User: Fold this.
Amino acid sequence: MPKLYPPTPLSLIILAGGRSSRMGQDKASLPWHGTTLLQDMIWRSQSIAFAEIIISANEQPDLSCLPPEILSRTHIAADRHPGWGPLGGMEAAFRASTCSYCLVLSVDLPFYDFSPVKQLLPELTQIPPVDLFLPMSESRPQPLAAVYRRGPTLKAVQATLTAEKRRVLSIVDALTVRILDDAGSPILYTNINTPSAYKDALAIDINRRRAVPVATISAGRSGSGKTALAVEVIAELTRRGCTVGYIKSTHHHACQETPSSDTARARRAGAAVSLLCSPDDIPAGQTKEQFLYQLSQQIDADLVLIESRSHGLFPILYIDGTEPSAVPEDKITARIGKRNCSAQYHTLTNQLDAICAYILYITKS
Assistant:
């Protein structure tokens, strides 16, 4: 059971009424942890006894997974200024709120754990009052994960909308601000505005739940450079201080390692463990993906890199070619070497530094 704090004069405002134009669908309803992004955020918020939860949305969102005790203090506030972005939603929510302070969150923050707010609770009654507790993450302000004093902020938002300004930070000059430099890990403020960012978030989430995080390098045919890239990645990540495990998935039977085999090359590049997974190794009743997962979780490493043409584990970095992909498209989070890629994928050049940075992002965040 999460630790519940005493009641505070604090509202939770969730901005869920945006157009989601870059995502191409309503972000609030994206699947997350067996429910939706919006409902999952509300469940996470239960570690704090918010007096009320106000959802800024122009249509009734799906709240079917929430129990009556949460629904009874949850309200919907529709924009009076549609099309004006977060400020329009904030104006409607601040008008609907009855609390002196409000935590304002964008709905697309899947890793926000409310820990920064727990630290602030004792300070919300300080004299003189602060109008805005503004977190900083990697030197960037986070106004859509901040605590606002309702009265002064509502006036500032209304004045900003009247002046036809759209940027949330435009209201800051009218408020007394306390900057929060120690506001938690950057992952708390990772948002998902595009389909590729959503896939990256799913990859981060599943790897946080694994004992050993995993990434797969795949391509549609042999000779496409999978092994060469895997060896380079292993060498570079090892140089950066990571302990890397390697699993080579093959369709060949009766394989034996030689000095020139892929597993030997990976070991020479620095792999702490280098394993071969062939059809002969798979126990009866298991799929190859299940056995690859089982192997990966038994390796003592910071992360495991799997090389496979058609049986890799999510997330998959796919080396593009002219042939159709041999893995399901929904498993691919990044495409390597393809320009003007669909917004469904993270596009990577062939530069080793960018590829390693992406692998660390989806495995170690």
